[in-house]
């Protein structure tokens, strides 16, 4: 896990709900970036869309639509 995600995870447990909500929102952004990096890495290693989709718990079409044209 990245340092940013560790920090945000800690902040997501803050007593102040607004601070915690902000941290959760930022975690989503960071996780999306991390997911994209991992999908591209898997593709560069020759892994197929179906394998990646299975790992993400989505359909092959969904993962290809999201990452296939980048």
Summarize the entry for a quick read.
This protein is mostly helical.
- Please give the count of helices: 4
Number of strands: 0
Output the radius of gyration: 15 Å
Query: What distance lies between the first and last C-alpha atoms, to the nearest angstrom?
Result: 24 Å
Determine the structural class based on helices, strands and strand pairing: mainly alpha
Residue stretches low in confidence (pLDDT < 50, at least 5 long) are none
For the report, how would you describe the main beta sheet? none
What is the overall pLDDT average? 93
Tell me the fraction of residues in β-strands, as a range.
Answer: under 5%
Spell out the blueprint of helices and strands:
Elements lengths: L2 H9 L5 H28 L4 H8 L3 H8 L3
Helix pairs in contact: 1-2, 3-4
Tell me what the structure shows.
- The protein has 4 helices and no strands.
- It is an all-alpha fold and 70 residues long.
- Helix 1 runs antiparallel to helix 2 (17-44) and helix 3 crosses helix 4.
- The model has no long low-confidence stretch (mean pLDDT 93).
